Amino acid sequence: MIRFNCIKNLISCLFVFSFNTGVAKRIVRINLLQPIDSVYKSTSNNLPSDKQASKQTKTLYFNLKKLQQKGIMFGHQDDLAYGVGWKYVPGKSDVKIVTGDYPAIYGFELGRIELDHSVNIDSVPFDSMRNYIRTVYARGGVVTLSWHLNNPLTGKTAWDAAPGTVASILPGGEKNDLYKSWLDKVANFILSLKGKNGEQIPVILRLFHELNGNWFWWGEDHCTPDEFKQLWQFTVSYLRDTKNIHQCLYAFNTDRFNSKEDYLQKYPGDKWVDVVGFDIYQREGGEKGNAQFVKDMDHMLTMIEEIAADKKKVPALTEFGYAQVPDSTWWTNVFYKGLDHHKISYALAWRNAGFNKVGDAEFYVPYKGQISEKDFLKFSKEPNILFQKDVSKMHLYK
Ligand code: BMA
């Protein structure tokens, strides 16, 4: 208390002393009696890359930064659409069945929108996706969109890594018009995302993810750093300036990476990015595999936090998973160990695609009866792991 009074007195003295000087204005602006939020809000560090971003988008960006001090939002791809053993059941969610709450952030996928299909690459109808997104927004959750777009040069899938594809869709390239027509379709979908008062729903658009891997046509060996940066800037500029979309935050995300230099090799620039993240999967099991995963994830999270702090961006684990979670204590003993001391915005588990025709299952969060169910529940109770109810209270858009 004594210290507090001293500080208060010192501030008053400073204020009086500088009242008639230029310093006074600045001091008035950072008046300590003003709520801390409005001070933060007014600094350009907390504004998204799109200077014309909508009010809700600016507020979300600011709140994503603020929320980092509180905890990490847990996310799940396609959470509301399907899970292991079920599809399209209103209100259902594997995460909710096991933990009692929905995720705080939800991933959805745009692949096949470019072909005018009514369902996406994972057979989610775009009309249903729009409704899920409205539901998420109405309850104060966050939406991130990925896009496994087909190869515009060959017409095959995103995994057809034909050389020269990136170059072919840049301005002047033979497929630039086709690529623009695909972006028009993405734009139409994003612009159709509206809240109940007609306001545009903010989304985190995760473009050209895992760019340092070689499996997608935009990947590491398939374009130069300069081509990739041009592709990114062209895409953002087309959506933002040509299509007038002002509800997007742009996420740049690699796969696993070795160093900050490695991470930033194709980074398109601070003016074009809001979220910096990476994707990581555990592939090796057992004690050795677990220890290595904790070490790798921890190291990359430290680097991503440093990059984000340096660039004033939001750090995130944009995708993660351990296929079929075959370890009963993986959530608390492995994943949380690598995660808990980090201050990132969110961690998004990949999709619970369920069983395929030959009986194999693809899933990354447990369903009822799965061996890591109890441990996932325990993990979900950690105070710094945030679910829907936690973020609803925070009013991320207000
Ligand atoms: C991959 C897999 C595929 C899916 C694709 C796009 O990681 O989950 O089954 O089609 O993502 O969501």
Describe this structure in words.
The chain has helices at 2-17, 22-29, 36-41, 55-67, 94-99, 126-138, 165-169, 176-191, 225-242, 260-264, 286-311, 330-339, 373-380, 388-394; strands spanning 72-77, 82-83, 86-87, 105-109, 142-146, 203-207, 248-254, 275-282, 314-322, 346-349, 354-355, 361-362, 385-386. Helix 11 (286-311) packs parallel to helix 12 and helix 12 packs parallel to helix 13. The strands form three sheets. An eight-stranded parallel beta barrel has the order 1-4-5-6-7-8-9-10, surrounded by four helices. A two-stranded antiparallel ribbon has the order 2-3. Helix content is 39%, strand content 15%. The longest helix has 26 residues, at 286-311. Helix 10 links the parallel strand 7 and strand 8. Mean pLDDT is 91; it is low at 1-36. The radius of gyration is 22 Å and the shape is globular. With 398 residues, it is an alpha/beta fold. The structure holds beta-D-mannopyranose (BMA). Beta-D-mannopyranose binds at residues 109, 111, 121-122, 148, 351, 353. The site of beta-D-mannopyranose (BMA) has 7 residues, from loops.
